[in-house]
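Weekly structure sync, notes
Attendees: PL (lead), two postdocs, one rotation student
Agenda item 3: pending single-chain targets
PL asked that the sequence for the first pending target be pasted directly into the notes so everyone works from the same version. It is reproduced below exactly as submitted, 256 residues in total.
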Amino acid sequence: MQPVLKIESLKKYYGKGDSQTRALDGISFQVMPGEFLGIMGASGSGKSTLLNCIAAVIKPTSGSIEMNGKEISKLSGSRLAEYRGKDMGYIFQSFELIDNLTGKENILLPVSLHGGKETADSERFQKITEYLEIKDILNKFPSQMSGGEKQRIAAARALILNPGMILCDEPTGALDSKNAKALMTKLSGLNSEDGSTILMVTHDSNAASFCSRIMFIQDGKLFHELRKEDEESRESFYDRILKVLAQLGGGSANVL
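Predicted structure, written out during the meeting:
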C-alpha cells in the first residue's frame, strides 16, 4: 500500500543568521490511506507551518512533499489550483464561510470553482449533509448558525469533492466542548466508516484522542509519536496523550 502523503526532510526557515527561526527542521513522515493522524505541539512548535506547507500555502526551504506520488512543489497554475481544490479538503478553525451564501451554497462552492458533477441533488451531497445532520440549516446564512453548525457546514464543503486527504487546522478551536465532541465524533466516523484520510493539527487533547496516531512536534522537530492500540479505549489513549503533553508543557483536565 502506497502512502497518500509522504514528507521527507522538510525544512522551513525564516530569517538569517542569529535571528533565524527554524519553524520546521528536518521532519519526515508518511500518512497511509484511511489513517487519522493528529499533529500536536505547543504554540510556535511548527505544526501550523507544517500544515500550510502541505496545503501549498507556503513553500518549504527544502525537503519534499508528495501527495499520491506527486511532488507538490512542482505544481503550478491550474494543476496547483486543482491540488488545493480537489486533492485535499481543508477545515479551518474560523470556519471561513462566505457570509452572503447559504449553507448549501457554501458547501457547493468548490464544485463551481473547481468543476465537478456534484449538485444539491447528487448522491454525495445528500449523503454528506445527512451524515453531518445539517439538512435543516442548508438554507440558512452563516449569521443564522451556531458555531457547531458553521463547522459542520465547513466540513461538508471540505468533503464535497471527495478529496484524497482532509486537512484540519484546529477544527474544534472555536467550539464549546459539546460541539467539539460532536464534530470529532463525525470526523472519526468519516474515517472509520468512509475510509477518509485525515490529518489534523490540534492543541486539544480531547480532539486528539479520536485519532489513530499522533505526532508531537517540538521546536520544528518530531518529539514523540503515539499509536492507538487495537481495542484501546479513547480514555486510555487520552491518558497517554496527557503524559506526553506534560513533557511538552500542555494538556487539559478531563476527557469529554
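Discussion points:
- The helical segments are 47-54, 77-87, 103-114, 123-131, 147-159, 177-194, 205-208, 234-248.
- The beta strands are 5-14, 21-31, 36-40, 62-67, 70-71, 88-91, 165-169, 198-201, 213-218, 221-227.
Action: rotation student to compare against the earlier draft before next sync.
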